[in-house]
Amino acid sequence: MCERVPVLAPDGEPLMPTKPQRARRWLKGGKAEPVRTELCVFAVQLVEEPMGREKQEIAIGLDPGSKFSGVAVVSKEAILIGLNLELPQQVSERMDKRRERRRNRRYRKTRRREKRFDNRSGHWLAPSIKARKELEIRVVRELSKVFPISQIVVEDVSYNHYQHMEGSYFSQVEVGKNWLVSELKEIAPVRLFQGWQTSREREELGLEKTSDKAEKTPKSHAHDAIALCSLALENIELTDFSFNIVTRPKYSRRKLHLEQPSKGGVRRRYGGTTTQSKYRKGDYVEARQGDKTVRGWVSGYTKNRISVSDFDWNRLGQFVKSKTHLINRNTGLMVKSKEVN
């Protein structure tokens, strides 16, 4: 069976997905308009009220991890989409550097933030874990805008208190899991399954699993998310599905210059989100240089040029501003399929 196309009602309510052939007929006949989401998911929105809004069960599976997570949207009749999430890293190191720079500024005659001791009130979650969970929640919310989600299935993670005695009373892993579940419950009902259940279901479905967690294929994480959906829905049908990889732009938001000065005592500019032109870091652009045309994300700038990077934040080149064309503003998400080298 073929892939499915999400369908939206005239008021934006998600309806059951349809086959691509029918979606093309709707577009040709003027019965629907094309829609593309921030996750680069193509959908159609009906112009007139449909004859009915009946919906079947559709589940989102989420296999959370520390560096990578898997997400899938599945119905009993088809696998609708599979995603691998590359989660933010180096948050703890950046927090340490920020604290160090703030302390240094307090010893100099310069503008600074006064030290604070009593501003940690209420529930606290480690910034590194919160950044990962926020990306997972963001992706689930975006998917729920185009698919009629009936439930969210999450693999339950727990801290090994017996093996790691330093966390004998609590762990940020479990705190992060509980916060994630509480946020997801605002979208749809949540069900939890253990890791051994996911593994057994994946083997029964015949889905492959690779040992390389960084591999950019469904076998690394998306297949686990599909197995989670199968546990909740029971007797799903395995079909072809669109696969993509999602992450966040890797620019430095708060670090505005290098720590070590160059010759002359001037510290070179670094970080920030704005540039000296109309572009911002993270904007999706098309740039030309001779016969070379690339599509990527703005990652830096000089006086006359814009730096464009690929999905892995490797610089593709520096291009003249007049030969750079803005396609989409920065949404805080990067999708692998949009990369064109």
Topology:
Blueprint: E1 5-8, E2 14-18, H1 20-28, E3 32-36, E4 42-46, E5 58-63, E6 68-75, E7 79-86, H2 91-106, H3 127-144, E8 151-155, H4 172-184, E9 190-193, H5 195-205, H6 222-233, E10 242-247, E11 284-289, E12 292-301, E13 305-309, E14 315-320, E15 324-328, E16 334-335
Parallel strand pairs: 1-4, 5-8, 7-10, 8-9
Antiparallel strand pairs: 1-2, 3-4, 5-6, 6-7, 10-16, 11-12, 11-15, 12-13, 13-14
Helix pairs in contact: 3-4, 5-6
Mean pLDDT: 89
In which order are the strands of the major sheet placed?
9-8-5-6-7-10-16
Give the uncertain stretches in residue-range form.
none
Sheet bearing the most strands, described?
Answer: 7 strands, mixed
